[in-house]
Amino acid sequence: MPAPAARLPTPVPTPEPLSDAPPSPELAAQPINDAPEQSTAPDLVMPGAVPAEAALPVEGHQAVDEGPPAEPGTFDRAPPRGLIIGVAAGLALLLVVGAGLVAYRKLAPRAPPPTAIETLASAEADAEKDSLASIASAETKARDAVDVAGPRVRFPQATAALARIQIQWADALNDQAGHIAEKNVDDPRVAQLQAQAKAKVKSAFDLLSPAAKADASSQDLQLALADYYRAKRLTSSMNRYLKDMKDEARAALIQGLALAQEDDGADKALPKLKAALAADPQSARIHYRLALAHLALKDEASARAELKETLRLSPQHERAQALLDQLGAAPERK
Q1: Minimal CB count within 10 Å: which of 11, 197, 254, 266?
Q2: pTM of the model
Q3: Nearest-angstrom CA–CA distance, 39 and 41
């Protein structure tokens, strides 16, 4: 047999030397992002290339020296401390003044609207008719005037008028009770009417007390308080409110009503009531009070004349009509 051939060693490939030639255009065109992982090794710098950091100017430094820096001007310096404090104080003062004006406009009392004034005038006109129905209407209208004006409106005239009307209503209720008592003292209606009159007087005081504290200079409120003490038969308190009263006509009416309440006071009441009538000749209320004063003095002729005038001005005045019927026809003159 032939001898087996000797096995030759496996040749090892020799690595090719690195070429200095630039990479091919195909390789250069591939994007860098195609690399699976960026190498953390420092980038190789090609011979003769300028690093990127060296190509950019250093931030914060000028490339060319422009000369010495300019001296700081007026507006480059910080303002004085006193000026800052003065400006701040001025701004604070303006804010305080502005807030005060806003608060004054919100909280200051306002003038009553024309609707409230007209409603109050209508209420006072109804009160002058002095019948029970007209007094009730006057009270309703006076309340409406107060409500229309609102709590922030300074309108003491409406509050005073409402209180006076309630006191006037108490007078009318007491008149009714007196007429019934003349026929039958034990009539239960007498006590009922008197109780209603007391309630009206108390309601008037409940209105006047806080209003007078809020506006002590209102003469309307002072007159109403004087009338309240007149109805309570407290003459000294009444005179205290009338002492400096400039409205002589309305003060004379209150004084005349107070004198007519007293025993044998009709003679003194007549001049006061006539002075009040001179200022308000169309008042059925004053004419009726004059008729009562004349009756107390046994002057039936004058009483009839005043009762007829009362009914002419207020045809629904039931008390005047009842009193005229009670007097009967005037005796014929011979």
Answers
A1: 11
A2: 0.68
A3: 5
